[in-house]
Amino acid sequence: YYDTNLSQAINVTIEYLDPPSRQLLQELSVFGNNYFSIESIRGFDQTNIFAIKNQIEQLLQRCLIQAYPEDKFKLHPVIALYCTQNFSIDTKLLERIVHYYIKLISDGISYLNKQPSGIDKELNCILHILDTAIQNSLYTSAIALWERISIYLWTTGRWEVLDKYGDRIVSVCKMINDHKSAALLLIRERSWIYYWRGNVETAEEKALEGLSLAQQLEDEYLIAFAEQRLGVFYITKGSLNRAAQLLESSFQILLRLKKTSHLIDGNTYFGHLYTNKGQYSEAIEYYKKSLELAEQENDYKAQAISYTYLSRCFYELKEYSLCSENLEKSLKMNSFIGSKIGIAFYYIGKAKLQLALKETASAKDLLDKARKLCQELELNNSLQEIELLESNL
User: Fold this and answer.
1) Would you call 359 exposed, middle or buried from its count of C-beta atoms within 10 A (0-12, 13-18, 19+)?
2) Using one digit for the tens of pLDDT, what is the confidence trace for 316-330?
3) 3-class DSSP state of 197
């Protein structure tokens, strides 16, 4: 590109495009060096599909874009650089693209239901658009996009992406005084990722920071959400009385607010509380309540979680047939929604069951699979459990 003759040749090529194709090329520069599809173009360009296909064909014939499998396209690398240097970002266009992706994620994934097939293919482009929106001060749109895509990232175990963007988005929220979004992200996402990695102290700090913001806002829902999270953390820390108080008080508020997904979680956490007390029959009753609510809501993720914890209780009660039955149901659900965490838990639970049944070879294979996933997800507590199980081989 820095060759003058090449730059002039690109100028001439672009000048020979018809005006709509020239306009489309300028619009496509917002995607940088990422894949795009005709569907994504239609998300911000209301031109009919036949006209768009004709414009794409012109750009292909002049080698300005390149075609890839699955009806994907990319700007030629040299052209992508040229566009970056010569075309300024149209913020109204960028806003339309952000809202297109928000709709795509909202329509294509309900973290309660299933893993979408389309979002994975668009992920790099979505993250590029997120970066571009922040760079161009479209902060509110960037926050809204992150709130959608972060749920997908969590479900599919993309924790490295959550780490890369999580605190940055919270800082953006604070910078524009959107303390409600900051509180939600701290409570829902940032505290939870530390908890699952075994860093309960940092998890508590993040939740308390979110709680403080929620209290300043006098937001009853966010306060209850934070207290529910803290209740889980205190179970892990062994402060069961404090945990019980927080879980009960938050549950009553969430019940009054009719926050069904949190009521499902609340019953699950009461199950954890009784599990930690060794009262497995009581725990089973709460996990069954969670499962019943999850089934009513078609919440496949919550159903998978309920089956996982039911299997653990039945294992402790040496009811191995029921343990196995619930494990297989959890695997089916977790595979369906693409939950790597859930699949890792299945491997561990199945390995424990196989060890109890003296099926050592099968248990070893399952633990190997579990370790690989847990290392990827940095599930430190689960890795310790795997080491302990391996010592029994």
Assistant:
1) middle
2) 999 999 999 999 999
3) coil
